[in-house]
UniProtKB/TrEMBL annotation:
A single cellular component GO annotation: plasma membrane
Function: Odorant receptor.
Organism in which the protein naturally occurs: Chrysochloris asiatica
Protein name: Olfactory receptor
CDD domains registered for this protein in UniProt: 7tmA_OR14-like (cd15227)
Principal location class: membrane
Alphabetical list of Pfam families matching this protein: 7tm_4
Domain G-protein coupled receptors family 1 profile stretches: 39-288
């Protein structure tokens, strides 16, 4: 760790300096990573091949799973390699690429969750017009907008972050190139551009959150007027998990980025970073897949090599959840 300031890259400190704990961390992350990949790819496969799962809800879920696969692949494999090889060095090029992809996917995940909340709002509050409101063309344009907005977010964050001058020891007390940790390496106020970008994106995230909250206020008021207890149960079963995912993702990310960073992060800081980088790709398949009868039926058919069903209407797919 001599003359770290002159290094062209950065040194990721990870979770521990103890070799045994480094190996344990690498193995645990490897198991978590493989489970996340398997569960998300299963969702992508069954929502692609089963024509019964072609409603907008499953179309957006497929893209959420694709985002989750990419999202966890940005940080975890590098962390596994660093832990098992006992080498936390990351070149500046790798760090730039990681920041770009991470921030792009983080915003895209927020955007797709917002789109999914609107989909639930249209399905429950306007069931007779649902197929018109969420027709395939509009769904495709919504997904394109999600990915495009993520790329723009990544470019803006990366450009502003790496326009600052790093003059301190290039030590990052994280298991990935975290923007708040990078800002601490600046000795001047040239990081104000990043603060401006973060503020703007926070306002945009708040607008998304407001839209989601308003959608769910309308959803719950409509659901409570459904005379059938079974109908209310099915509507809540698709809406409440989505609300939980949104709340969890936003609360963890907001807490991590708005709380003051310290020179020596605590275990809580590291665990918080795990909650918003590693946990969402693990929770999403569980919440959306295991609790959905149509998804479970399609998964059983995939395992047993059965024939997938023919395409059904949007509303029948929705009510199957």
């Amino acid at each position: 760790m001599t003359n770290i300031t002159s290094m062209s890259g950065f040194l990721l400190m990870g979770f521990s300096d103890i070799r045994e704990l480094q190996i344990l961390h690498g193995l645990v992350f490897l198991v978590v990573y493989l489970l996340s990949l398997a569960s998300n790819f299963i969702i992508v496969i069954i929502t692609t091949v089963d024509q019964h799962l072609q409603a907008p809800m499953y179309y957006f879920l497929k893209h959420l799973s694709l985002l989750d696969v990419c999202f966890i692949s940005v940080t975890v494999p590098q962390s596994i390699d660093n832990s098992l090889m006992d080498d936390g060095y990351m070149s500046q090029g790798q760090c730039i690429l990681q920041v770009f992809i991470f921030t792009a996917l983080a915003w895209a995940e927020m955007a797709i969750l917002t789109v999914m909340s609107y989909d639930r709002y249209a399905a429950i509050c306007f069931p007779l017009h649902y197929e018109v409101i969420m027709n395939p063309s509009k769904c495709q344009w919504a997904v394109r907008a999600v990915w495009l907005s993520g790329c723009i977010s990544g470019i803006v964050f990366t450009t502003s972050t790496f326009s600052i001058t790093f003059c301190k020891d290039k030590i990052i007390h994280q298991f990935f190139c975290d923007i708040p940790q990078l800002l601490k390496l600046s000795c001047s106020n040239d990081y104000l551009g990043v603060i401006g970008v973060t503020t703007f994106m926070s306002v945009m995230a708040f607008m998304c959150l407001t839209s989601i909250i308003l959608s769910y206020i309308r959803i719950f008021s409509t659901v409570l007027r459904i005379p059938s207890a079974e109908g209310r149960s099915k509507a809540f079963s698709t809406s409440l998990p989505h609300l939980f995912v949104v709340s969890f993702y936003l609360s963890m990310g907001t807490c991590a980025y708005l709380k003051p960073t310290s020179d020596y992060p605590t275990t809580f800081d590291l665990m918080l970073s795990i909650f918003y980088t590693v946990m969402p790709p693990i929770l999403n398949p569980i919440i959306y897949g295991l609790r959905n009868e149509a998804m479970k039926a399609a998964f059983r058919k995939l395992l047993l090599g059965g024939q997938f069903t023919k395409k059904k209407s949007y509303l029948s797919c929705f009510m199957a959840g």
